[in-house]
């Protein structure tokens, strides 16, 4: 797993749609699963969404906590 891509998950914002402006790591699981069913966008964004979906699906989101802290991006409250 590429560490630079993990950093992008906690710093890159969703550029369009219902969750425009939300950090990719903060996207809801059902939204990520929708992309998994319907198809991820092409390019880097699609790769990041697919990576985040895999992390979320496998219950590994807490692995991003040190990166969130490093970048001052606290986890969203549910």
UniProtKB/TrEMBL annotation:
It comes from the Bacteria. InterPro entries: QSregVF_b. Pfam families: QSregVF_b. This is DUF3820 family protein. It comes from Pseudomonas fluorescens.
């Amino acid at each position: 797993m590429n560490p630079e891509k993990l950093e992008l998950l906690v710093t890159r914002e969703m550029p369009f749609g219902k969750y425009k402006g939300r950090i990719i790591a903060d996207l809801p699981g059902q939204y990520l699963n929708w992309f998994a069913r319907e198809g991820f966008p092409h390019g880097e964004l699609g790769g990041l969404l697919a990576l985040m979906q895999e992390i979320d699906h496998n219950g590994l989101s807490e692995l991003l906590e040190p990166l969130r802290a490093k970048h001052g991006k606290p986890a969203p409250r549910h």
